[in-house]
Design a protein that fits this description.
single chain, PH-domain like, four-stranded antiparallel sheet, three-stranded antiparallel sheet, 2 helices, 7 strands
């Protein structure tokens, strides 16, 4: 009877722990995939990534020594890989595109897209847009994207400021 109880306890413990192990391994694999993608972008220009962030289905990194930002996002039907030379940029701003939801009495704002827009130093050049969140592409709810756009706008603007031409 004691052996039967012990075996039942071990089986139940295994059943409870198995999903945690699977989720943990899947998360680690996903993180490695995005780190590899950012590092591959950097290696194309012989750059070394000094800081990265990974969220949802995207990653961003910076090579402080060469002043370049690397951005990679991938979903089932969309993939975008970009390298942005911050020496060619004048500023970075957060673009928060939202829509109203609900009745007039209880109206709330819903974020549809969250982006970083990098403004070129060359007049007439279009902004370079790094899309952190898009309700049409992302199948998950908004999580850390707001904090990450604030963080990376600060990092990018500080890097741009270091290389800005002196007046």
């Amino acid at each position: 009877m004691d052996i039967g109880t012990t075996i039942s306890g071990l089986v139940l413990t295994f059943i409870c722990v198995l999903p945690i192990i699977i989720i943990s391994r899947s998360s680690a694999k996903k993180k490695q995939f995005f780190i590899k993608a950012i590092n591959q972008l950097a290696s194309q220009g012989n750059d070394t990534v000094t800081a990265t962030d990974i969220w949802g289905s995207a990653a961003i990194g910076i090579a402080s020594d060469t002043n370049k930002v690397f951005f990679y996002t991938k979903s089932a039907d969309y993939e975008d890989a970009r390298t942005v030379n911050l020496n060619e940029m004048r500023a970075c701003r957060i673009v928060n595109i939202s829509s109203a939801s609900g009745s007039k009495e209880s109206q709330s704002r819903v974020i549809d897209r969250l982006e970083l827009a990098l403004v070129s130093r060359t007049p007439g050049m279009p902004e370079t847009v790094l899309e952190f969140y898009n309700t049409e592409r992302n199948k998950y709810t908004l999580t850390r994207e707001l904090q990450l756009t604030d963080k990376w706008a600060g990092i990018i603007n500080a890097a741009i400021k270091k290389t800005a031409p002196k007046k």
